Structure prediction request, 379 residues.
Amino acid sequence: MEVDKSSSTTGQLPIVPDHDETVARLREENARLSAELARLRRVTEESAGTTWEAEMARGIAYADGQSPTSSLSAGRLLKQLAGLSKERMKAGLIRNSSELEYLPKPCTDEAQLEADFVRWGYCLVKDAMSPEQVRAQVDRLVDQAEAEQSLKAGIMTSRNETAQLVNNLVLKGAVFRDAVEFKESAAQRGPLVDRLLTKVMGEGFGLGCAHGSIVHQGGGLQELHIDQGGMPMPYPPFPFGSLIIWCYTQFDLDNGATYCVPGSHRSATGTTRFRDGVDLVRLVEGEPGLVAICAQPGTCILTDTRILHCGGRRMSPGTRYAMRCHYNRYFMRALHEQSTANVHVPDDVYELLSPRLKQMMGITVNNHDPIGELRHNEI
Prediction:
């Protein structure tokens, strides 16, 4: 350090940053100020024109305007997408995700999987099941599906019996129960999937459903939807749950892969895209638009429940097999309509469930006797 003898002050001369350091510092400061301005704009927009007096005069207005008993819901927003998946499929406007280099590819790198989930609303865990594990589950699924059809109890989800749902697999085989709670005996990368889901929803998350999906040629097409559509809006900047798909067979456009709109779940700032007044059609018709998720057998697909998606139509001969499991945050009742099956567990199966699986299903208590001051022998 030099001393400036001509200066009226004493002490060492300051070190002047070089050009690159100065530019980097200014850019960092600019980014910080831009973020603060954006935050202040949001606060201003939210508060502009709103007073407690006006809100109090308006009264309780959480309903969607169509029913005095229903909260603002996703249903009326999804109406704008009615028939769109079929329309775009027939027009040949759905691409394989593998055609777009920037979209998620199957991998095992945890940091990359998290990055894919954040940016695109889904990620693909490569080789989550070994070929032997896949074979064991498909064999059991086929046996169960055939038995249910023979008893006239099969749930056919497409016309001409081109698709079948095998509900509540937790009660229908140890291979499914073990996969649902991510045991390596049923899913070799189960612990990795478990860690990812815990980061999405926190510890102690619950199970909404676990069902088998069987799609033959010509079946499988659904309407576009989100998997937390039953929850009232506005949505917080995080998902209420996660749907995961264990791919037992090849997933691509011809084979009936799941369609999705990558990035339709959130913005870079964390704002949920699915909100009141949004133009969902623009999301579907934008870039990358509606794509078919490509994955090899044994892959596990994890999705954010806010992402727009639907079942895809199988156009090639043969059958597509998968297991779909919906998980939700621990403090919420399971979102899926099949979750009520969790409370109808035969005693012999209940004894086979692990403590964690009972917790996931919300059936940790199986004592129907009254407790405390309500016990009959104390009345």
